[in-house]
């Protein structure tokens, strides 16, 4: 997922520290201390099975990054208003290729919002802080993600991208919050702990993470029928972390060992 969401980048940070199961990033570490690692092994499952495209008045302010706390996992810690979440560095006004995990393949619309000028990452995110900058229906897919171009508005400093995926074949909705900073960057990610990954390294980590997800999902598929993915909240509660552990060790050794 690019720009990486809070849960996704914390997941990458966890992979790098899988031996301790504790991220280095201060914000990610605080989230794990609050709700454990299970949400990160299921970082893509910020969902509401009955979302139905509803926004203001349904998802309370301060809970947007957890989809209103109605999903199968506890992502409430990822609503924390703090400035040290892992963030992607971008350039104001540029056009980026936004990528969203296609772990669940479904038709629908993606609405992309960005925080308004004057917003601070230390204040709770509410609907009134957002402005919609893109909406796309049934974007194309490649390998592990949907993708489409989004032109970023003129901004400076820290901001947040909020993506709301509204399925057209059910009431299920998915949500994500991506912390970004407009400083002339080209996609590199900083984790708040002194660690920086280039855009290419983030892409490599994304491939490794998706391989982990695929392996875990395949393992789970041997034990449960997925049907037509009518509702992911039920099977999303599979113990994804357990079958992924061996894969995580391989990913950590091969990718993060290469980074040094």
TrEMBL record:
Name of the protein described by the UniProt record: Lytic polysaccharide monooxygenase
Stored PANTHER family: CHITIN-BINDING TYPE-4 DOMAIN-CONTAINING PROTEIN, GLCNAC-BINDING PROTEIN A
Residue stretches making up the Chitin-binding type-4 domain: 1-180
Species this chain originates from: Streptomyces litchfieldiae
Taxonomic lineage: Bacteria, Bacillati, Actinomycetota, Actinomycetes, Kitasatosporales
GO molecular function: monooxygenase activity
Domain of life: Bacteria
InterPro entries listed in its UniProt record: Cellulose/chitin-bd_N, GlcNAc_Chitin_IntDeg, Ig_E-set
UniProt keyword list: Monooxygenase, Oxidoreductase, Signal
